[in-house]
């Protein structure tokens, strides 16, 4: 998705010597061959494009995990953004999933929500997941982020954020939601996500409560 440069240029020309009417500022007049009629560029004020929510990027450092640190202790916030310009300024200057180290988890969550089961807003939620082969997640991750920050989901208020996880044999992207028991909202999110990604395989939704008890927890919903 290309973002239009907010600092467009307006142009101003000297009045046509053949008319007595004054020109409004910024108006362009078709002139003749008179070299004295030159365009003058005037910069408009910078106007950022605000997002509906603030979002924070988080990174889980794989090197800390190897030292058997407690889960979540290596998780740190990277940057909080609130405009589309801030999003692109960060996204264009960080590693994409295919370039992250094995074991890394990179999150984008609404501000004030930590990407942890223990966070009060996430505690009763769950997640939809898409599993991809190595090096194939970059486009899916970007399209997921654009759908989130662009408020493309009908039940967007149910969404906490998303995470891309890089593992030795595969990469996985997940969308975390607030109320796992709200089947209508969860199924809607899952179906729309597949449409945004143009993904045709079946995806499943796991409750966080189930995942806490069993690493191989089964899907509660599938679309």
Automatic annotation (TrEMBL):
GO CC terms of this entry: eukaryotic translation initiation factor 4F complex
Annotated GO MF terms? RNA 7-methylguanosine cap binding; translation initiation factor activity
Domain of life per record? Eukaryota
Name the chain's protein. Answer: Eukaryotic translation initiation factor 4E-1
Q: Where is the composition biased (Basic and acidic residues)?
A: 1-11
> Which family is annotated?
Belongs to the eukaryotic initiation factor 4E family.
Which keywords does this chain's UniProt record carry? Cytoplasm, Disulfide bond, Initiation factor, Protein biosynthesis, RNA-binding, Translation regulation
Q: What's the source species' lineage? A: Eukaryota, Viridiplantae, Streptophyta, Embryophyta, Tracheophyta
Among SUPFAM superfamilies, the record links this protein to: eIF4e-like
- Any one Gene Ontology BP term: translational initiation
**Chain segments annotated as transmembrane:** none
Residue ranges with Acidic residues bias: 19-35
Which residue ranges are recorded for the region named Disordered? 1-41
Any one Pfam family match given in the protein's UniProt record, by short name: IF4E
């Amino acid at each position: 998705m290309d973002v239009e440069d907010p600092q467009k240029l307006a142009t101003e020309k000297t009045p046509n010597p053949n008319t007595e009417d004054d020109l409004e500022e910024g108006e362009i007049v078709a002139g003749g061959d008179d070299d004295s009629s030159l365009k003058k560029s005037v910069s408009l004020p910078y106007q950022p494009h605000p997002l509906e929510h603030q979002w924070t990027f988080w990174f889980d450092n794989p090197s800390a995990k190897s030292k058997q640190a407690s889960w979540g202790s290596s998780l740190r916030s990277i940057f909080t953004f609130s405009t589309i310009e801030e999003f692109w300024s960060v996204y264009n200057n960080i590693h994409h999933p295919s370039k992250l180290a094995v074991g890394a988890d990179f999150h984008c969550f609404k501000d004030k929500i930590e990407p942890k089961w223990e966070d009060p807003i996430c505690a009763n939620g769950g997640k939809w997941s898409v599993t991809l082969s190595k090096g194939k997640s970059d486009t899916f991750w970007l399209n997921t982020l654009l759908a989130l920050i662009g408020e493309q989901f009908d039940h967007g208020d149910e969404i906490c954020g998303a995470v891309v996880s890089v593992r030795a044999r595969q990469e996985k992207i997940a969308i975390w939601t607030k109320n796992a028991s709200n089947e209508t909202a969860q199924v809607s999110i899952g179906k729309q996500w597949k449409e945004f990604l143009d993904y045709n395989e079946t995806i499943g939704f796991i409750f966080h409560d189930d995942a806490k008890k069993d690493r191989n927890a089964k899907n509660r919903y599938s679309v």
